[in-house]
From TrEMBL:
<keyword id="KW-0408">Iron</keyword>
<dbReference type="Pfam" id="PF06155">
    <property type="entry name" value="GBBH-like_N"/>
</dbReference>
<protein>
    <submittedName>
        <fullName>DUF971 domain-containing protein</fullName>
    </submittedName>
</protein>
<feature type="domain" description="Gamma-butyrobetaine hydroxylase-like N-terminal">
    <location>
        <begin position="15"/>
        <end position="98"/>
    </location>
</feature>
<dbReference type="InterPro" id="IPR010376">
    <property type="entry name" value="GBBH-like_N"/>
</dbReference>
<dbReference type="InterPro" id="IPR038492">
    <property type="entry name" value="GBBH-like_N_sf"/>
</dbReference>
<keyword id="KW-0479">Metal-binding</keyword>
């Protein structure tokens, strides 16, 4: 089992822009996304961030300046991103990266709304 669904889009390019803190990812269907390191960090698929069920998510704060220090392949279906704040436990499947790209505006606004509701900040 490789972790991919039969119709999973495969990436054709994965490039980290360290200065701008952007991970650029292109897929074989022509989709191309630029995802900030902060966005990727606050939406880490790790249990540390997502919790162990609905409603158990842990709001990530103070991640505006986080960057990625390493991208490690995991089989042919995912990458492990290592962040400057030491976080490295999330496995980002191609499907999840595609979803994060396709729904970026909605997810980012959801994150900003949760921060505001908690009286927290990105810094």
């Amino acid at each position: 089992m490789n972790g991919l669904k039969p119709d999973s889009p495969m990436p054709t390019e994965l490039r980290l822009h360290s200065q701008s803190k952007i991970l650029e990812i292109a897929f074989e269907d022509g989709a191309r996304f630029e995802l900030s390191c902060e966005y990727l960090r606050v939406y880490s698929p790790s249990a540390e961030v997502r919790g162990h069920g609905v409603g158990q998510e842990v709001l990530q704060v103070g991640k505006r300046d986080v960057n990625i220090t390493a991208i490690e392949p995991v089989g042919h279906y995912a990458v492990k991103l290592v962040f400057t704040d030491g976080h490295d436990s999330g496995l980002y499947s191609w499907d999840y990266l595609y979803e994060l790209g396709a729904r970026r505006e909605q997810y980012w606004q959801d994150y900003l709304n949760r921060l505001a509701a908690a009286g927290a900040a990105r810094d």
